[in-house]
Amino acid sequence: MTTERIEADLVVIGAGIVGLASARALHQRHPHARIVVLDKEPAVAHHQTGRNSGVVHAGIYYAPGSDKARLCRQGVDLLRAFCLERGVPFVACGKVIVATEEEELPRLHGLLERGRANGVPDLRLLDADELRSVEPHAAGLQAIHSPTTAIVDFRAASEAIARELRDDGVQLLLGAGVRSVATDDRGVTVEAGSVTVRAGSLVNCAGLHADRIARMAGATVDLRIVPFRGEYLLLREHRRHLVRGLIYPVPDPAFPFLGVHLTPTTGGAVEAGPNAVLALAREGYGPFTVRGDDLAETLAYPGFWRLAARHWRAGGYEIYRSAWRPAFVRSLQRLVPDLAPNDVRA
């Protein structure tokens, strides 16, 4: 196989939104640098970026003063401006975080304090009647209303960034899966697809495979990617009116996910979910997708077993809810009681 050699100053691995945005920021800071973006897929945003629920979180959940809180708030403003300038769908549909039980109220009030400390605009606490004025079919004791929380089409945003990068002379090489990474005192050599890229620096934005790329590059990485699949159902078209904006439960701090919620999309659908189920492959988007090497790596990782020991009960319920749709719908009914099992579809 003939290999094309490319000389660059910077090489970015991964053409999801993180890789593309990183390449854009690097180009803006170093406009004369030669930048190459590599991705193994034939299109940008093929994995996590193109498969998430499209929520632009406002910064309510993160500890005040943390980098997550600061960067979330900055990122919301930058993403909104970028999308509006380029015609990418960005809709401030608003969000309610609903407490359905008395024991959730202290956590709800704590989230309200966090959000205000982080500068999330226009937050307010709703009682049950006020909640129904915002979401007529939602039920709860109290709720936080965040009217500026938005949804976006992250795939379209990524495609817009990719067009900008190409127009500015950044090379996007798709269908170029990384085979090897070698480092020395002068930089890095990346073998990917039919090209060899020699660059001074490498930026690793490889998503589900970021740990593997880091190890290829010679980094000492004790962590492993443990893949979880988010399973969503869709509200049937004639029942979409039950949901105006985002409807979330109060998260359980003992569990690493935000819980089952209802999410409108920029395309007009309403997603319900997710169940968070251990995937049997890093790119295991279906329940029967298995890759032996991925699964073996997960099972050999002590961190997975520590996670399982801590959350086995919740994880077991996620599997049960995945297999038994009425249980899934019961979780949704805590937020929107009018939902029935036949109101959702796969």
Describe the structure.
With 346 residues, this protein is of the alpha+beta class. It is 34% helix and 25% strand. The chain has a six-stranded mixed beta sheet with strand order 9-2-1-12-11-10. It has a four-stranded mixed beta sheet with strand order 6-7-5-14. α1 packs parallel to α6 (154-167) and α9 packs across α10 (325-333). The protein is globular.
Number of helices: 10
Overall average residue pLDDT: 96
Structural class: alpha+beta
Spatial ordering of strands, largest sheet: 9-2-1-12-11-10
Please compute the radius of gyration using only Cα atoms: 22 Å
Distance between the termini: 43 Å
Quaternary status: single chain
Query: Can you write the helix and strand succession as a string?
Result: EHEHEHEEHEHEEHEEEEHEEEEHHHE
What fraction, in percent, of the residue positions are helical?
25-40%
Gross geometry = globular
Beta-strand share of residues: 25-35%
DSSP summary, beta strand count: 17
For the largest beta-sheet, the strand count, sense and barrel status come to: 6 strands, mixed
Low-pLDDT windows of residues: none
Attribute tags:
10 helices, 4-stranded mixed beta sheet, 346 residues, alpha+beta
SSE layout and pairing:
Layout (H helix, E strand, L loop, with lengths): L3 E10 L3 H13 L5 E4 L9 H4 L3 E2 L10 H20 L3 E2 L3 E5 L5 H13 L6 E4 H7 L7 E5 L3 E3 L1 H14 L3 E3 L4 E7 L2 E6 L2 E10 L5 H7 L11 E8 L10 E4 L11 E4 L5 E9 L13 H8 L2 H22 L1 H9 L10 E2 L1
Helix pairs in contact: 1-6, 9-10
